[in-house]
User: Fold these one by one.
Assistant:
Number 1:
Amino acid sequence: MNKIIFSLITFLLSFNTLFAQDNRIFGITIGGSNYITDSDVVFTKSQPGFSFGLVEPVPLSKRFELLFEINYTQNYTKFIGRQTKLSEPEDIKFKMGNINIPFIVNYNFSNLKKDFIFGAQAGPSLCLFHNYNLVDSSKEDYFLDPIYLKPKDLAFDTENERTSVNVFFAVGASVTYKENFMCNLRYYKGLTDPYRNAPFYSTIDNVTVSSKESYFALSFVYFIED
C-alpha cells in the first residue's frame, strides 16, 4: 500500500510540472465522509469517516478547471451481528481504508464581490482497496446478520490476495475564497459492485451477493502558491 501511495504522489507532482498554468502549485485537502453500504448479505449503519490528500488544479478555460486528486479515506461502518446465532443482535464497528483518485471538472458559474466563487462539479473517481477490518478484534468470531458471515469474510483484498478497484461518479458544489481556499461538497455514487470480489460469493446458495455503495464527502482545500 505504501508503494502505491508513493507512486501516486510522484505522479501528481509530475502532473503539476507538465500542466501547471497558474500560480497555484497544489492544494492540501482534509475533510469528512459518510460511507453507505446497501447489500443483501449484510445489514449496516453508516458512520462518519475522515480523509486527507493532495489536489492539483489544472485551468481549462476562464470558468472550467480540472481537479486531479489523491485522497486517503478512512471509512467507518457498523454491521449488525451477534456473538452466537441465538444471541441478541448488536452493532459491530468496522473500518476500511481507501485510496481515492477523483478526476473532477469544476465549473465556476458565479462570483460574489470577486472574493467568493461558486462552482458545480462532476467527474469519475477510482477507488483502490476494499478491506473491512474489525475495530474490536475480540469480536472476530461473531456472526454477521442475516446469513451469518464471519468478520474476516469482509476483508476482500486480504482473502483474495489482490487489490480491489472500484469506480464512482461524483457530483457536487464548490466555494472558492480568494483562490487559496476551497470548500467542496460531493456525492459519490458507486458504478461498480465491490461485492463481485467477495471471497464467499460461490459458497452462498439462493442469495444475491451484490452491493450498492456510495458516500458523501465534505472537504476543505488550501492551495499553495508558487
Note: The longest strand covers residues 90-112.
Number 2:
Amino acid sequence: MKTDYYIIANVDKRSADSGNSADWPKVLAYSFKAKKLYMSEGCGHGLVGGEISIANVKLADWSEFFDDIDGKRV
C-alpha cells in the first residue's frame, strides 16, 4: 500500500561543488493518513532516514535536526 507524504521542509546547505553528503540535504515530510513523519538526511552513500509514528516522536531527541532545517516550535 502506498503512503503519501507531504514535504514540510527540504533544506540543502551543501556548496554547489559538493558531492555525496552524510549531512545534507535534510527532508521532513508528514503523512496525514498514516499519521507518520518521514525524516532523512544525506545523499548518495550517506543517505539515512525512516518513518516514525507521530505518537512516538520525542521532540527533544530531534532538536538538532529541527534546528538544522530552521524549524520553529509552535
Note: The radius of gyration is 13 Å.
